[in-house]
Design a protein that fits this description.
about 950 residues, mainly alpha, 39 helices, 14 strands, about 60% helix
């Protein structure tokens, strides 16, 4: 391979770089070739040109030894020296791997195994150093025989399988044997604290970027509970987690798990503990459906990110080979223990030996997999970047052409595509896709679309709708003239529209509803992948038509964010929102697929998660699967999950820059979020803003502990500003929520994040009546337990203050009249559900007045933040009579239901008067006047 002559562009690059490094020394052809083939190799040799002599030592290059990166005396090795040794080791040996791959044409199976061994050596050395350093500070956790209890490091993914990429990040999980306190240190500490310190040091040793670079990007999100979970767990706690809460995707993840370093007595304990979770005793064909869903999720991810030429995630990519092998391991691994291996290649050999897959298919899969892994290795070795996307720049295309020994780059693409097609065929055999659903329909709909002959609709459609349908189709065709479409897209569209028209006729859509569906098609007309999705999944098309006929909001939502079309593939999930307590876990798992350090991608992911789950809630709402109260419960639970994830993201970004405030960690941030208004009262709608106030518990003397330390109060201000940025910035997927923080102390002129005790003093001494009204609907939605408890005490103390009844009533009525004057759209023809006389806001103000006026002697009134339960408690305390409570609750729920329906159909907040509205609003107005109006005469 190394005898291939370099093309002129690479030959020139080789000569330039050689002269820079070695001046007039005679050119070593192989070494010059490496300089041309890899920018990373050039950078490493720039720092130490003498490594070139090492590369030319044939015996050294033939060796696969893995020397220890660190000296034996770890306790006296300072952090700076340790970090430098680890990074220099990585540079040296990854340079060797580049030499083997890019110059010597090494067997890829050998290369990825060698990279995995080297990586394991680095991780184990960092673990031992971190352990020794922590022992020096805190003593040692010992077993009953006086032996030190090590921290176990679990390698996941390709690291676990011994098939690591050249520039891969590493997925790790940490655990420890027993909960015992340390001995021999200045102060004994709990095992959890000790091993957390070890884990933090280990991560820093590998992940931190120094002047010498970085060893690995460390990803800890596969651990139990993801980012929000403890950094390290005991074996017993881990067993409880996987037994009680382990999800399907975690079974697949654990399939690749492997303990790293030198074996000890706890390794068999761990593997025995995890085996029943990963492998079922019976032949488990249920995994096929689960893996198929995972593949759909990956296809969705590829569409979402707009990935093209991706040899890992694209159709027929590396991931599909992994799915094939994993599926068969999961199905049969419980019975055939020889399949219980983390190595893909070893598992493939066993599948061959067991005749689970035909020998020819095994050979084809192995060859295709290694071929793509070799291409992936090349792509990453060019500049030490974690990429699986074929290059767009000419230099890297030429490099790939040379390495693949093809006459031009087009031939390279053809060979890669041919290989991926083979994998795709095998994937379809084992995993398969959902059966292609084609709806048989009358050819009349084809004529309607292609010929414009809407008279063909006679007998298939209400006669009165034929002309409006014709007009809708004409408008759609005009809209298409403004869209760029390729030949393939136009061909798919001509097949799709007749199917769509058939579904629309079957479901008896009127022209306005048909237009809303066609608007979505117009929006995606230039994106062939989405047209194919709808055409090849007739069930999804049917759901699209069905939902658009029920809700204009849904139609506009999908038109605005076409990625939501993926949600239509699984009707069972579409009309079944998650349980209320599952949103937080779901978003954590969703973010496992998101690159940790990619802020733009994280912001998009937050928005797409919200949009997808709002669609599910709206689908269940529009089809009466959920009641109005449940809809708001779900929208509020979704918002809380997003708030928590956003805070976690902002926290990670802040501590990366400034370090953590003293005494804080991932679980105890010293920061909390208070929700007001609809979010506080569990009454969020589809387009509701979030009224939030940020508080912290830092005193004025504490600082952060990073290299760039700042006062903790400044840290929390910056954290709140970062949250505002995450929520309010408009991306391709819009804003997350409109975040309104004007209810904080001093409003817009006040601090964005305030100390919780300062918040109390403000409420006690300076707050206006309307601010106490707002506090009725306030609740903490994120924070540690002590802050939850303290806020509860503060809220109760403020709400139970003694107040002058007449003065309170005057303030409440005055504020209500101002709002009505400025905001009400009431008229003789229509009733403003929200601001009208006797509307929702009147009921809300009355509930707030009852709490502020009567809570001093009735603590029960402060228990809840939603209006319905406040009214129920007022009746329980005989503040309202039974008829008043019934009328107010009935009216409030009815108005909210009408408001939701108006929202779903984009019809504003005003509805035409009818007998029920007239009676209810009059009754509400009378009750409001009875309790408040009479006090302010």
């Amino acid at each position: 391979m190394h005898d291939v002559t370099l093309p002129p562009t690479l030959a020139q690059l080789a000569q330039q770089r050689w002269q820079q490094l070695y001046d007039t020394n005679p050119i070593e052809t192989d070494l010059a070739r490496l300089l041309a083939m890899s920018d990373f190799a050039f950078k490493v040799l720039q720092q130490d040109p003498t490594l070139g002599d090492w590369l030319l030592d044939e015996l050294q290059m033939q060796s696969r030894d893995v020397p220890n990166p660190l000296p034996e005396d770890l306790s006296s090795l300072d952090e700076q020296s340790c970090f430098r040794l680890l990074r220099k080791y990585r540079q040296r040996y990854w340079l060797k791997v580049m030499w083997l791959d890019l110059v010597k044409g090494n067997d890829i199976a050998d290369s990825i195994h060698y990279v995995s061994q080297l990586s394991e050596g680095l991780i184990d050395a960092a673990n031992q150093w971190a352990f020794a350093q922590t022992v020096k500070q805190c003593g040692t956790p010992l077993d009953s025989k006086g032996n030190a209890l090590p921290m176990l490091v679990l390698g996941m993914g390709k690291l676990g399988g011994g098939e690591l990429n050249f520039s891969s990040d590493i997925d790790l999980i940490f655990c420890y044997p027993h909960n015992v306190n340390t001995q021999g240190g200045r102060k004994s500490i709990e095992a959890q604290v000790f091993y957390t310190k070890v884990a933090q040091k280990l991560i820093a040793a590998l992940n931190q970027v120094t002047v010498d670079g970085q060893v690995f990007r460390v990803d800890m999100r596969l651990r139990p509970f993801g980012d929000s979970g403890p950094l390290v767990m005991s074996l017993s706690a881990m067993e409880d987690y996987y037994q009680d809460q382990g999800r399907e995707w975690e079974r697949y993840a654990m399939l690749k798990a492997r303990l790293l370093g030198k074996a000890n007595a706890y390794w068999p304990v761990f593997y025995q503990m995890m085996r029943p979770f990963v492998y079922r005793r019976y032949i488990d064909f249920s995994v096929i459906e689960s893996l198929r869903k995972m593949k759909h999720m990956i296809a969705q991810e590829v569409r979402r990110k707009g990935l093209i030429n991706n040899i890992k995630l694209g159709a027929g990519g590396i991931r599909e080979v992994e799915f094939i092998v994993q599926a068969l391991q999961m199905i049969r691994g419980g019975r055939d223990t020889s399949l219980q291996t983390s190595s893909l290649l070893a598992a493939l050999s066993q599948l061959d030996a067991l005749e689970v897959i035909p020998h020819e298919a095994v050979c084809s899969l192995r060859e295709s997999y290694l071929y793509l892994r070799k291409i992936e290795q090349y792509l990453q070795a060019f500049d030490d970047q974690q990429t699986q996307t074929l290059p767009e720049n000419e230099v890297c295309q030429t490099r790939l052409q040379v390495l693949m020994q093809k006459p031009d780059y087009q031939r390279c693409l053809e060979c890669i595509q041919s290989t991926m097609t083979k994998i795709r065929d095998e994937f379809a055999q084992v995993i398969g896709d959902e059966p292609f659903e084609q709806t048989a329909f009358d050819e009349a709909f084809t004529y309607v679309w292609l010929e414009g002959d809407t008279q063909q609709l006679a007998g298939k459609l209400n006669t009165a709708q034929i002309e409006p349908w014709h007009n809708a189709l004409q408008s759609f065709k005009e809209a298409l003239t403004k869209r760029q479409m390729g030949a393939r897209g136009a061909d798919i569209l001509d097949k799709l529209i007749p199917c769509l028209l058939y579904q629309a006729a079957e479901q008896e859509l009127v022209a306005e509803e048909l237009t809303s569906v066609l608007n979505i098609i117009a929006m995606i007309a230039s994106r062939t992948a989405y047209l194919e999705l709808l055409y090849e999944n007739q069930g999804a098309l049917k759901q699209l038509v069905y939902l658009c006929s029920h809700s204009l909001w849904i139609a506009e939502h999908i038109a605005k964010y076409p990625i939501l079309l993926d949600e239509l593939l699984d009707p069972a999930a579409l009309y079944k929102p998650l349980p209320l307590n599952a949103y937080k876990l779901e978003i954590r798992q969703y973010f496992l697929r998101i690159e940790q350090h990619d802020l733009e991608q994280q912001m998009e992911a937050l928005r797409q998660f919200k949009q997808a789950h709002q669609l599910r809630i709206a689908a269940a709402d529009a089809t009466d699967v959920l009641s109005i109260m449940k809809v708001s419960d779900h929208l509020t639970a979704l918002a809380e999950a997003i708030i928590e994830q956003a805070v976690n993201l902002a926290w990670q970004q802040m501590i990366a820059r400034y370090g953590q405030p003293e005494g804080c960690d991932e679980q105890t941030k010293g920061f909390a979020v208070i929700a007001y208004g609809k979010a506080g009262g569990w009454e969020l709608g589809y387009d509701s803003d979030l009224d939030l106030v940020f508080v912290h518990n830092s005193d004025g003397d504490s600082y952060t502990q990073g290299e760039k330390c700042i006062p903790a109060r400044q840290f929390y201000l910056k954290l709140a500003q970062r949250l505002m940025h995450l929520f309010n910035t408009r991306t391709a997927s819009g804003i997350l929520y409109e975040l309104d923080t004007r209810l904080r102390p001093e409003g817009n002129s006040g601090l964005l994040a305030i100390n919780l005790e300062s918040f109390y003093q403000y409420q006690l001494q300076q707050a206006w009546t309307w601010e106490h009204q707002a506090l009725v609907r306030a609740r903490m939605v994120l924070g540690e337990q002590s802050m939850y408890e303290r806020f509860g005490q503060i809220r109760t103390a403020i709400l139970r203050q003694s107040r002058d009844c007449k003065e309170l009533a005057e303030n409440v009525v005055s504020m209500r009249e101002k709002m009505r004057t400025h905001l009400s759209k009431d008229s003789n023809d229509a009733f403003d559900l929200k601001q009208g006389l006797g509307g929702m806001t009147d009921i809300e103000f009355l509930a707030q007045f009852l709490v502020l006026n009567f809570a001093e002697n009735n603590a029960l009134l402060t228990e809840h933040t939603d209006n319905v339960r406040i009214l129920a408690n007022a009746k329980e305390l005989a503040i309202l009579d039974e008829e008043e409570q019934r009328v107010l609750t009935q009216a409030y729920c009815f108005f909210r239901e009408q408001y939701h329906k108006q929202s779903l159909n984009r019809q504003g907040k005003c509805v035409s008067w009818d007998i029920q509205l007239t009676q209810l609003s009059a009754q509400v107005a009378a009750i409001f006047k009875r309790h408040l109006g009479d006090l302010v005469k």
